[in-house]
Specification:
Bound molecules: nicotinamide-adenine-dinucleotide
Order of helices and strands: EHEHEHEHEHEHHHE
Structural class: alpha/beta
Number of strands: 7
CATH superfamily: NAD(P)-binding Rossmann-like Domain
Strand content: 5-15%
């Protein structure tokens, strides 16, 4: 129970990786505020979290709106009295309908940066004053292996995740004097609805994947790029998250941890 009685906000916590992080944290004793734009899924996740004997609540939050992220932080304080952990997980791979296009539009660039980068900044800006007051806190940002090196086909997404890694380092330096750790995780290849769409984009753009089903693209990419030869799971990311947000990792800050089966060894 390495997070017993901690309070964590997980943005985009209703589904996918965010949900798995929230579950892993609840298993370790943390109370959770599930923050998302998907109300039905957020409610379902929160009621599942309660089955671990912790307190869970939902705050509908669009992270691109600074007023909404301020309301998210206030809700956590009202409900739980403190905020120990912020997980900036909410993310998108493009503007609505991006996967039907073969090239990135200006709207893809704007929308993706707005959610992945500015959304993380908004949430941190809302939460950090409370952490500073407590002289304690953990901020964890979800980047991607796409942020380690520009990937073809999704330039707007790759560069937004690179910005998340850079922001992690900048914020870590700024907040270290207040005993606040800031780290990132770079997930590898996970078979989620997001990757199903990514696979479709590769099949559209890359001749070696032309005409293949997204799952086949996914498997071929794993075989070609991942030394362990296996896909990663939301639970893998959750395991890394609980470590980085625990006091076991109190001397780790400004780092981006690849959880990618060896895809990148740097
Ligand atoms: N799936 C992968 O293979 C993969 C790989 C590397 C990194 N990531 C990153 O991990 C994170 C989670 O990805 P996922 O695969 O679980 O995606 P997902 O689409 O399954 O979940 C994203 C969640 O964020 C929420 N969300 C979207 N926009 C939001 C907004 N403006 N405000 C609040 N919530 C919002 C969605 O409702 C959803 O619940 C993302 O940051 C993603 O970029 C995913």
């Amino acid at each position: 129970m390495i997070l017993r009685d901690r309070v964590a906000i997980v943005t985009g916590g209703a589904t996918g990786i965010g949900r798995a992080i929230a579950i892993k944290m609840a298993e370790q004793g943390a109370n959770i505020l599930v923050s998302d734009i998907n109300e039905d899924a957020a409610n379902e996740t929160a009621s599942h979290l309660s089955s671990f004997g912790v307190e869970a609540a939902v705050q509908i939050t669009n992270v691109t709106d600074p007023k909404a992220t301020q309301a998210m932080a206030s809700r956590a304080i009202d409900q739980f009295g403190k905020i120990d952990i912020l997980v900036n997980n909410a993310g998108v791979a493009g503007a609505p309908g991006w996967y039907e296009r073969s090239a990135s539009t200006e709207e893809d660039w704007r929308f993706t940066y707005q959610v992945n980068v500015v959304g993380s900044v908004n949430a941190a800006n809302a939460v950090v004053p409370h952490m500073r007051k407590a002289q304690y806190g953990k901020v964890l940002n979800l980047a991607s292996i796409a942020g380690r090196e520009g990937r073809p086909s999704l330039p707007h997404y790759s560069s937004s995740k690179s910005a998340v890694v850079n922001y992690t380092q900048a914020l870590a330096g700024e907040l270290a004097p207040d005993n606040i750790n800031v780290n990132a995780i770079c997930p590898g290849l996970l078979w989620t609805p997001m990757w199903e769409q990514v696979g479709g984009r590769y099949a559209m753009n890359d001749p070696q994947y032309a005409g293949l089903e997204p799952r086949v693209v996914f498997e071929k990419m794993i075989a070609a790029t991942i030394p362990f030869g296996t896909e990663q799971t939301p639970e893998d990311i959750g395991d890394a998250a609980i470590f980085l947000c625990s006091d076991e990792a109190s001397n780790i800050t400004g780092q981006a941890l690849n959880v990618d089966g060896g895809f990148f060894m740097r």
